[in-house]
Amino acid sequence: MHVLSVLCHHRTDSLSHALADRFAAGCREAGHSVEIADLHAEGFCPVWQPEDDAQFDDAPMPSDVLAEQARIERCDAMALIFPLWWWGMPAMLKGWVDRVWSWGWAYDQTDDPTRSLLRDRTCVMLIPAGASPQTMAPYGYETAMDAIWRTGTLGYFGMVEKRIHILHGSGGSVARRQGHLDTAHRAGLTIGDPAVED
Fold it and tell me: For residue range 112-127, what is the model confidence (pLDDT) as tens digits?
């Protein structure tokens, strides 16, 4: 398979970058090719432009959006790798989602999140989070994020298999960090295995 790994972190020495490297290594060991879309390094503009409204008028989309859509069209599976900020995606990645997954290309309805105009794919999310499970559980944060991403976003985008890994305590010990890197490597190794569950 060809795997698109979308990375969102401004620091190259971040855990997110290390996770992207380990995930890519796992993919390659499994025989897959990998393309890394480093949104900060590439200078993607996450701000909605007036030209982005073209999607609602059946007009051509901006060239930077078309380039990202072409990346997605040529991939067989995808990874989204980003730190959890304020219980959601960083602004850069949220803007990428807003601009790239456009009406008339990814979807053309809003009542059925299991339908997409795109072909079926697997999506892996690797999300370093500073918070512990004990911090998140009483408030239902993880359940809410799972619903937002699994149903409210990825379903519309043709992601029929969704593997979401929230990597708790990402600022913790060396051993915990290594465990997160091992999770990323395993996610790459098994991305083509339909038997693997979230």
Answer: 767 788 888 999 999 9
